[in-house]
Amino acid sequence: MSRPCNKLARTKLSSCAAIFLCVCVFVCSGQIPQFGYCDEIDMSRLVSLRTSFKDQLEEEGLRFSYMPVLIKAISLALVDYPVMNAHVNDDCTAITYKADHNIGVAMDTPEGLVVPNIKQVQVHGSWFLLALHCG
After folding, report:
1. DSSP symbols for the chain
2. Which regions in the chain score pLDDT beneath 70?
3. What three-state secondary structure class fits 113?
4. Which end of the chain is more exposed for a tag (fewer CB within 10 A), N or C?
5. Which of 9, 8, 7 has its CA nearest to residue 95?
6. Which of 104, 105, 97, 102 is nearest to 122 (CA)?
7. What Rg, from alpha-carbon coordinates, does the chain have?
8. Per-residue DSSP letters for 40-64?
């Protein structure tokens, strides 16, 4: 879905671009800005949930990892903040919102850096992601 940007939005995008230009690295393929975000989250309830399911899952050959839960949480956040899953055209006149939540997670492996991309996270439940992570 695309929509035209009004003058205020173009002004904000232009000033944001000037600020981010100082701190973002632009990748040549597609000029995709990279950014980071940091926040603190109380995960004690998730730790308790993991503890309660750990034995049952191990009997089935599965391991409860936090990664699928975090990936699903990111997808749910994208529902509330769709602009984080959008891009602006080259002249900042339109924003295209992406319907799919395709989330990649960089992983250091003995063979080098691998970035699996999980497609359409928004349609999958956390249990599916857990199985995908374990499989």
Report:
1. -EEE--HHHHHHHHHHHHHHHHHPPEETTTTEEP---------HHHHHHHHHHHHHHHHTT----HHHHHHHHHHHHHHH-GGGGEEE-TTSSEEEE-SS--EE--EEETTEEE--EETTGGGS-HHHHHHHHH-
2. 1-35, 126-135
3. strand
4. C
5. 9
6. 102
7. 19
8. ----HHHHHHHHHHHHHHHHTT---
> Could you tell me the maximum CA-CA distance found in the chain, to the nearest angstrom?
59
Q: How far, in Å, CA of 37 to CA of 20, rounded?
A: 13
Q: Which two tokens stand for residue 71?
A: 């990936």
pTM over 0.70: no
Q: Burial level of 3, CB count in 10 A (0-12/13-18/19+)?
A: exposed
pLDDT digits (tens, 9 = 90+) for 60-88: 887 788 888 888 889 999 999 998 898 88
Which residue(s) pair with 88 in the sheet?
95
